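To whoever is on call:

I kicked off a structure prediction for a single chain this morning and the downstream step that reads the tokens threw a length-mismatch warning. I double-checked the sequence; it's 167 residues and nothing unusual in it as far as I can see. Pasting both halves so you can look.
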Amino acid sequence: MLSGTPIVVLINGASASASEIVAGALNDRQRATVMGTQSFGKGSVQTIIPLKGHGAVRLTTALYYTPSGRSIQDEGIAPAVVVDAPKDQQISGGALLRESALHGAFANPGPLNQTPGTGATPAPVPQAKSVYSAPIKAELIGKPDDAQLKAALAYLDRMITKADRSL
């Protein structure tokens, strides 16, 4: 088992849906450090229902929440450690879209299990200020020049060294 082993999850504006839930869950459970830039903010599940000979209907059938009850819809996950890709590694010329910019997107419904009027909200999870930037070019991801990966590996190295010193 990897109990206590440091973990880093890298996210950026192209991180959406299930990847945001994984990052949010590991963050909420304080099991990983989320690094990178703000994620996309897709906190809903759509089911496509084909209509015989007439296209399809897209129906929102569920909402994603992190274990703390926080909705990621329209907000995404803010990394605990912001690591922006250098400009020359970012996808250029593309619009920086967020879930909220898409036609038909709905607003964040708020925390799960909040009783109206009580003001009760889940305990906040430490996050850095939201940083929106273009994602890293796909051909660089995981390669030796990937600046965000280098930052994550350096962070893990510091965490492991720190743990070794405490033994």
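Update from on-call: the warning came from a stale cache, not from the record. Cleared it. Sanity check on the structure: DSSP finds two helices and five strands in the chain.
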